[in-house]
Structure formats: structure tokens, C-alpha cells
Design brief:
alpha/beta; 5-stranded mixed beta sheet; 34% strand
Length: 85
């Protein structure tokens, strides 16, 4: 998980969601790259839960085909899961 405090959305790579066996549903919004111009190929959205050291982290993210990171966790992830240390 790449945590990015400058990101205003959470994004996960489509191939990663498929690898995890996650469910992808239709998305109602789009997104663009950090440059604000290059569109991301959004194929849906997903909800995932990760566990580390007995802590659960919830992620509700857009699913993109053309994103570099498996998971780009922005401010919604940070705010939804409290402070991350």
C-alpha cells in the first residue's frame, strides 16, 4: 500500500483486485492522474479489508486499469482508518 497524503481519492489496480478475488462494481465517478490531465481508465470500484498486526484497515477505492501502484491510499483511506503509524 502506497499512502499518499496528497491524493484525494483511493485507487487500486484492477489486476491486483482480481488477484485478491475482490469484487468490482460499477463506479459512478472518474479520475485523472496527478497531473490533472491524463485520465485513469476506471473500470469500477471495490471495497477491501486488510489486516496487519491485529488491526483492520478498510479501503473503498476506484479500480483502475492503468495505475502504477497496486494500492494508492489517499486521504479517504487515512481519514477512514484513523492515524497510520
Amino acid at each position: 500500500i502506497t499512502v499518499d497524503t496528497g491524493a484525494v481519492i483511493d485507487i487500486v489496480r484492477e489486476a491486483f483486485v482480481i488477484h485478491l478475488g475482490g469484487k468490482i462494481v460499477k463506479a459512478v465517478q472518474g479520475a485523472s492522474q496527478a497531473d490533472g490531465k491524463s485520465p485513469l481508465e476506471i473500470v469500477g470500484e471495490t471495497k477491501l479489508v486488510f489486516t496487519r498486526n491485529n488491526l483492520q484497515f478498510k479501503l473503498h477505492a476506484l479500480v483502475a486499469r492503468n495505475v502504477d501502484d497496486d494500492i494508492l491510499a489517499g486521504m479517504p483511506f487515512i481519514e477512514g482508518n484513523g492515524s497510520i503509524h
